[in-house]
Amino acid sequence: MDINSINIKTESHIVTPESFDVGSAVGVDKRYWFIAIVKNNTEKSAAQKLHKAGYDCFVATQKDVRVWRTGRRVSVDRVVITSAVFIYCTECERRIVVNEPYISRFLTNKAAASTVGGRPVATIPDVQIRNLRFMLGHSDTPVGLVDRTYGRGDRVRVIRGSLCGLEGEVLVSNEGQSELLVRLDILGCAKCAIDLVDVEPIR
Predict the structure, then answer these.
(1) How far apart are CA 34 and CA 86, in angstroms?
(2) Mapping DSSP to helix (H, G, I), strand (E, B) and coil, where does residue 92 land?
(3) pLDDT at 86
(4) What InterPro entries does UniProt report for this protein, alphabetically (predicted)?
(5) Structure confidence by residue, pLDDT tens digits, 108-155
(6) Which residue(s) pair with 169 in the sheet?
(7) What's this model's pTM, rounded to 2 decimal places?
(8) Which DSSP symbol is given to 2?
(9) Domains and CATH numbers, the chain
(10) 202 with 167: CB under 8 angstroms?
């Protein structure tokens, strides 16, 4: 799914110029997970350039096995959230990165009120990034992005299988398929199929 097509309707962790920490007690600026928007099909190359520049970043990908007509099986990294690179940096570093020719802009929260400088820059909380990366690396079924959020339902914890320990919410689709949802605030939810026998409610 193209990140540019997402209609943001949920509250997010919003970062405005006034809310940035100038520095901590030890003089270290606070880092946030920002979402850099790049051209489609350039996500991996953009992330490589950012890594070489010393930034902590990643592209939301999942290992897929594709079978050629000859029967040959090839493992590829499928980009789950297109046109997006997650980068962990300070606001000062973000203002430098946005000037790179391969970065189009940083995602803002369209649902938030405008400020003098425009829409506030949005971030993703650390825990949601950790959950997303865990799901991408361990799910046995394809992970997708839901560009809308659901009402808060019963929270569950996966107790067996490759996603053991992951916490999220369960949704039953129109087809009767149970899906585990991990919230990503402004992006909506990451989801994958889950068997209800593999989860337990969080009290």
Answers:
(1) 6
(2) helix
(3) 97
(4) NGN-like_dom, NGN_dom_sf, NusG-like, Translation_prot_SH3-like_sf
(5) 876 655 666 677 888 999 999 999 999 999 888 888 877 655 444 678
(6) 155, 181
(7) 0.69
(8) B
(9) 1-124 (3.30.70), 125-203 (2.30.30)
(10) yes
The DSSP secondary-structure symbol of 146 reads: E
CA distance 189 to 149: 6
Please enumerate in sequence order all residues whose Cβ is within 8 A of that of 160, keeping only pairs 6 or more positions apart, or say none: 198
Tokens of 199: 């989860």
113: Cβ–Cβ under 8 A, 6 or more apart, which residues? none
Is residue 7's pLDDT more than 50? no
Q: What was the pLDDT predicted at 169?
A: 87
pLDDT in tens, 89-103: 999 999 999 999 999
Beta carbons within 8 Å of 90's beta carbon, 6+ residues apart: 20, 29, 30, 31, 32
